[in-house]
Amino acid sequence: VGLALGYNGGDISWTDDVSVNGTKYDLDMDNNNVYLNAEIRPWGASTNPWAQGLYIAAGAAYLDNDYDLAKRIGNGDTLSIDGKNYQQAVPGQEGGVRGKMS
């Protein structure tokens, strides 16, 4: 029997690096993943390479990931979403769109 306990996490922030249909977005990712995995080898310490390659694995994980996607536009800029163009409603101010996924 083999056990594996692991963690994968951290914050990643990209500016103007994610492009969707020609529009560049800012992306912030907050990852927090913990997992436990058990491997069972039914044939134990067999010398047969085929028996060594066969095993049963079972595990559980806790996933807590947050993603934030944003696009900001200034004066004269156009935001294109799904083939439709949008401009600021109030000149002289900043506008944009933001999406979150948890």
UniProtKB/TrEMBL annotation:
This is Carbapenem-associated resistance protein. The gene is carO.
